[in-house]
Specification:
The chain is 44% helix and 15% strand. It is of the alpha/beta class and 332 residues long. Strands 1-2-3-4-5-6-7-9 form an eight-stranded parallel barrel, surrounded by nine helices.
Length: 332
């Protein structure tokens, strides 16, 4: 059996009592550790008007992380393309690829990454998501080699062929990635309902492209590893609190863990559904959960998010995960 690469999806958490600057410095520290532990990629996601997520200016943060690392791939997971001009994104990531050749990825999604009011403040057309397939095709065009007589070009960007991924949590993204011959990343870390169906559709309908002759699937997974199941479950309460606060319309910074949560039955069920793709516990527990998930989904790569309040505990979680994945690979 082949080795499954692991990557990091960093939501650049702003913890209670801290600020964005501290978040970025901790992200860089995590990226440097992840590089040393053998992680393949380090991705950041575009969100807006989220007090607990600092990576709104995603391309800027990608550059910061890339500058402070040497070998790990760094990218967006992702840029919400309908918020932007495809040419502008091509120029931004063309710039990054010029500064850090062979290390930059660009994952794109069609959601706004925010609420409706903030979408309007971003000057986002309410119908922009409908043109997402055309926007992706245009983005690919700007990265392609310059054509004779071409009047408008991405500078830098043209000819760099920055790897473009389609991100999604539904059959729509799976169909688009398959039709365009692009790698596909599924957001199972918070929207797992269509996971199995989307992966099957993507693989069945995949159209080979010059840069991607075979389908390539990456699935997202929540992991919090600690020295004991009890400790990990307590650390997990920070994530649970964050999701419920968002659901209640009171988003805020990532809060410290607690011994017990005050949730209604409906809220507890909602969290369980949204965060169903998770492994929370000591290494043996995490290993069993991940092995079952890999057997079920058969991905080419696993990307992991770990929202932990304490930075040292977050580092420890990713360190333990790297060790766990090593034992899974050896058994295969």
């Amino acid at each position: 059996m082949r080795t499954i690469p692991i990557s990091v999806l960093d939501l650049a958490p702003v913890v209670e009592g801290s600020n964005a600057g501290s978040s970025f410095r901790k992200s860089l520290d995590l990226a440097q550790h992840a590089e040393a532990w053998g992680y393949r990629r380090y991705w950041l996601a575009e969100h807006h008007n989220m007090p607990g997520i600092a990576s709104a200016a995603t391309s800027v943060v990608v550059g910061f992380i890339a500058q402070g690392t040497r070998t790990i791939r760094v990218g967006a997971g992702g840029v919400m393309l309908p918020n932007h001009s495809p040419l502008l994104i091509a120029e931004q990531f063309g710039t990054l690829a010029s500064l850090y050749p062979g290390r930059i990825d660009l994952g794109v999604g069609r959601a706004p990454g925010t609420d409706g009011l903030t979408s309007r403040a971003l000057r986002r057309d309410v119908m922009a998501a409908d043109t997402f397939p055309d926007d992706v095709r245009e983005l690919l065009y700007w990265f392609s080699p310059e054509h004779p007589g071409q009047k408008v070009r991405a500078v830098p960007g043209a000819g760099l062929e920055v790897p473009v991924w389609v991100l999604g949590s539904s059959l729509f993204g799976a169909s688009l990635a398959a039709a365009l011959g692009l790698p596909y990343a599924f957001a199972s870390h918070f929207a797992p309902a269509a996971l199995d169906q989307a992966l099957a559709l993507y693989r069945e309908r995949y159209q080979p492209s010059p840069t991607n002759p075979k389908p390539y699937v990456m699935v997202a997974f929540n992991v919090i590893a600690a020295d004991s199941d009890v400790e990990a479950q307590r650390l997990f309460t920070s994530v649970q609190r964050q999701f419920i606060n968002l659901r209640r319309g009171t988003p805020g910074r990532l809060q410290p863990p607690v011994d017990a949560l005050d949730l209604t039955y409906e809220e507890a069920a909602l969290i369980d559904d949204m965060l169903a793709c998770r492994a929370i516990g000591a290494p043996a527990t995490v290993r069993a959960k991940i092995a079952a998930f890999l057997d079920r989904t058969q991905p080419d790569e696993l990307i992991v998010t770990s929202q932990v309040f304490d930075h040292a505990a977050r580092l420890r979680s990713f360190e333990l995960l790297a060790e766990v994945m090593g034992t899974i690979d050896k058994e295969k």
